[in-house]
Amino acid sequence: MADLQMRALDITKHFQGVAALTDVTLEVERGSIHGVVGPNGAGKTTLLNVMSGFLSPSQGVVELDGRDITRLTPQKRVPLGLTRTFQNLRLFGGLTVRENVLLGQHSHARTGFLSLWPLRTAGDKELDCEADHALESFGLTEYRSRPAATLPYGLQKQLEIARAVSAKPRLLLMDEPAAGMTAQERLDLVPRIRSLRDEGLTVVIVEHDMDVIATVCDVVTVLNFGRSLIEGTPADALSSAEVRTAYLGT
Amino acid sequence: MLIQQLVNGLLLGTTFALIALSFNLVVGALDRLNFALGETAMVSAICGALFLSQLDVPFVLAFLAALVVGALIAGITFLLSFRFVSADYHTAPILSSLGVGLVLTSLVTRVLGSDQRRVPTVLKDVRIEVGPLRIVGDQLIILVVAALMTVLLYIFLNRTAWGMAIRGVSDDSDMTGLLGVPVQRVILLTFVISGTLAGASGLLTGLSFHTVSPFTGFETTLTALMVIVLGGLGNITGGVVAALMIGVIETLTVAYLSATYRDLIVFLLVGITLVARPQGLFTRNTGVVGRV
Amino acid sequence: MRTALTGRRATIFVAVALLVLAACGGEDEGSGGGGGDQSDAGPYRLGLVHSSEGPFASNSATMREGANYAVDLINADGGVNGRDIELVEVDARNDPQTLVTAIPQLVSEEEVFAILAPVDSAGCEIACAIAADLEVPTLSAGAGRPGVLEPSRPWSFTMTAPDASNSIPVLQAVVEEEGFETAAIIVDEANATTQAQADLYREVFDGTDVEVVSTTTFASGDSSFASQVTSMSAESPDVIALAAGPADAARIAVEIRSQGLEALLIGTGSLQAGGTDYINGAGEAAEGTLTAAQFNPENPDEPAASLLAQAEEDNDLESVSLNFAYAFDIVNLIATYLTDSGATASPDTLEADRQGLLDYLEDVEAYEGMSGDVAFAEDGTGDRPELYAVVENGEFVISEVGS
Question: I need a surface site. Which of A36, B21, B55, C375 has the fewest CB within 10 A?
Answer without folding.
Answer: B55
